[in-house]
Write a structure and sequence with these properties.
The complex is a heterodimer of chains A (388) and B (219).
Chain A: E1 7-14, E2 24-31, E3 36-40, H1 47-54, E4 62-67, E5 70-71, H2 77-82, E6 84-88, H3 99-103, H4 105-109, H5 114-127, H6 132-135, H7 145-156, E7 163-167, H8 175-192, E8 195-200, H9 203-209, E9 212-216, E10 222-226, H10 228-233, H11 238-244, H12 248-252, E11 268-270, H13 275-285, E12 289-293, E13 299-304, H14 305-309, E14 320-321, H15 332-341, E15 347-350, E16 356-360, H16 362-387
Parallel strand pairs in A: 3-8, 3-9, 6-7, 7-8, 11-12
Antiparallel strand pairs in A: 1-2, 1-4, 4-5, 9-10, 12-13, 13-14, 15-16
Helix pairs in contact in A: 5-7
Chain B: H1 2-13, H2 15-47, H3 51-66, H4 69-75, H5 77-80, H6 84-108, H7 112-120, H8 125-155, H9 168-176, H10 183-212
Helix pairs in contact in B: 1-10, 2-6, 2-8, 2-10, 3-6, 4-6, 6-8, 7-8, 8-10, 9-10
The chains are: A alpha/beta (388), B mainly alpha (219).
């Protein structure tokens, strides 16, 4: 990866004839190679226009567009578009062509030979999870919405473009399928490492899909551009804050993982230890609960003072059920969910083998949230200091 | 019943003439429909995105249809003489509207998202037209061709009045000799075989329509 941005927009402007206010005003923006940049904003902010300016579906009225350092503002627009994958919400598969022919569109225009095209079509169908022998010769009308969108993505990947532009690609798909397609696409992107500009109006989709998010206001002016974590932790102004909406703190917990926490030591006892030793540990820890582990060190029950005072007996039948446990790579969002479901308000952390590692408490979460906020604020303060 | 038998005898006695006239009739229709298809499709493509030209062309093609057929046929005699040529020119003018209208509508109705994605993948205007828009408009264009061919089969009967040939000759001989033996039979031969020819041609065009329409577009 080089320092050179894959896409660089330099004061790109679009004024439609007969309109006094520009639809996009002096937009300057970089997209790094291999990242997904999500453009998000209220409807009418010009995010789709911005996307379409990049492959010159709309010709800019001013400014320059660079691909990997090359000024493409004046090159042949059709040839430029063959180098850029383009996916739209309505997909727009060619209904009179088979799936295979659809996917072969750009390779065919680029004059690839037949066997190479056939090979590429099958490879792409497999990439998007459709069995080539079953789907190659079908027509678009025989596909479900989700399948059609997969073919749309495969077609955009046809000639292996370095840049992909996606305009609300999952917007018209039911929520369950959309979630699956998003996950599949993110997995795909880990291998493909395309440079992607992705437009959506849905902040949750932006948070999920974006390596970075650009929140756009009127005339496509960038209000904030940053990683989803930082935007959630520190919206720079009321516009961004309003747009993110409520629950930004909770959403931010999706980006933090249990393994990044210093786990709190917590009173524990093993199955077979005497209740009295448990009571002593409890007294030292100044906690309400003690965690009972089995012989292998796996969490069993939550026990309280009163459970231990009942004397000898099978401790594994006393106290509260342990509830769900989380592994180190669980998000703090999921962890919070589990914490809210247990009576102790804490969530045990176990490793891959189910062995007890520690617990997460509500204080740990508030600590993380405070840290994220202050880090983001420091980041922006430092930026202000540089620019002023 | 007697009428039907005598008609049948007439057909058997004159089969060679009838068959020849039907072929001539079909030939006129096919010449007209094929040239009109090429002309109207090209014209339709040219005017589809030019509102003024499009409205003008469609109105003119509409006006052609309102000109009484006999007058239109006769109009061309001074220029091209009598025989089939004036008839073919007049029929050509009649057959334009259905094909032209369906070409324009067919191109209009291509899903904008499909054109957008074609453009987004780097197809030139020409490629968009030839590979995407025209194939998608094709079923509707062929429907227009079928309407035109039916229209022309009927009106072509009048060609005989300007010296042309075809099944119209049986109508003419029958009508000018009404009351004489065989006149009614002759009129019925003209009528029945013109209708039959219309059906055969429509079936043929339906077959062509099916063969030239992508499987992905069939309902």
């Amino acid at each position: 990866m080089s320092d050179q941005p894959m896409i660089h927009l330099d004061r790109v402007t679009k004024v439609y004839p007969g309109s006094s206010t520009p639809a996009v005003e002096e937009l300057t923006m970089d997209v790094a190679e291999g990242e997904i940049l999500v453009l998000v904003g209220p409807s009418g902010c010009g995010k789709s226009t911005t996307l379409r300016l990049i492959n010159r579906m709309i010709e800019p009225s001013g400014g320059q567009i660079y691909f990997d350092g090359e000024d493409v503002t004046g090159v042949n627009a059709d040839e430029l578009r063959r180098r850029v994958g383009y996916v739209i919400q309505q997909i727009g598969l060619f209904p009179h062509q088979t799936i295979g022919e659809n996917i072969a569109t750009v390779p065919k225009m680029l004059g690839w030979d037949k066997s190479r095209i056939t090979e590429r079509v099958d490879e792409l169908l497999e990439t998007v999870g459709l069995d080539p022998s079953q789907y190659r010769d079908r027509y678009p009308k025989e596909l479900s919405g989700g399948q059609a969108q997969r073919v749309g993505v495969a077609r955009a990947l046809g000639a292996d473009p370095r840049v992909m532009l996606m305009d609300e690609p999952f917007g018209a798909i039911d929520p369950i399928t959309r979630d699956r397609l998003q996950n599949e696409f993110l997995r795909l992107q880990e291998e493909l490492k395309k440079t992607i500009v992705f437009v959506t109006h849905d902040i949750d989709e932006a948070i999920k899909m974006g390596d970075r998010i650009a929140i756009l206001g009127d005339r496509s002016v960038i209000r904030q551009i940053d990683t989803p974590e930082r935007i959630l932790a520190y919206p720079v102004d009321d516009f961004v804050d309003d747009f993110i909406g409520s629950g930004s703190t909770l959403k931010g917990l999706n980006f933090e993982r249990v393994r990044d926490l210093n786990l709190t030591p917590y009173p524990t006892m093993r199955l077979g230890d005497s209740p009295d030793s448990g009571l002593r540990t409890l007294a030292e820890g100044r906690r309400e609960w003690i965690l009972l582990l089995d012989q292998q060190g796996k969490p069993l029950r939550w026990l309280r003072h009163t459970d231990l005072e009942r004397g000898a007996g099978d401790l594994s039948k006393r106290g509260q059920h342990i509830g769900n446990q989380v592994e180190p790579n669980a998000t703090l969002h999921d962890t919070l969910e589990e914490m809210l479901r247990t009576s102790s308000g804490t969530c045990p952390v176990v490793d891959d083998n189910g062995q007890y590692r520690g617990v997460v408490e509500i204080n740990d979460l508030t600590e993380v949230i405070r840290r994220l906020r202050s880090e983001a604020k420091e980041h922006y303060d430092a930026m202000d200091a540089v620019s002023s | 019943m007697d009428g039907l038998i005598s008609w049948f005898n007439y057909v058997v006695d004159n089969w060679d003439r009838i068959f020849e006239a039907a072929l001539q009739h079909a030939r006129i229709v096919l010449i007209v429909v094929l040239t009109a298809t090429v002309f109207a499709v090209v014209l339709g493509i040219l005017v589809e995105r030019r509102p003024t030209a499009r409205a003008a062309v469609l109105s003119i093609a509409g006006i052609f249809l309102t000109i009484p057929s006999l007058a239109l046929f006769a109009l061309f005699i001074p220029i091209v003489g009598i025989g089939n040529p004036p008839a073919i020119i007049a029929l050509f003018m009649y057959s334009l509207l259905p094909i032209l209208r369906n070409t324009v509508t067919g191109l209009d109705e291509v899903n904008p998202a499909v054109v957008e994605s074609a453009r987004g993948m780097g197809m030139t205007q020409r490629q968009q037209l030839l590979r995407i828009r025209l194939p998608l408009a094709w079923p509707l264009i062929m429907a227009g061709v079928r309407v035109s061919s039916l229209l022309v089969v009927g009106i072509a009967a009048i060609a005989v009045l300007v010296g042309g040939d075809g099944l119209g000759t049986f109508l003419q001989t029958g009508l000018t000799r009404i009351g004489f033996p065989g006149s009614v039979e002759s009129v019925w031969v003209g009528t029945v075989f013109i209708v039959a020819l219309g059906l055969v041609l429509d079936l043929a065009f339906a077959g062509i329509q099916r063969l030239t329409t992508s499987r992905g577009l069939r309902i």
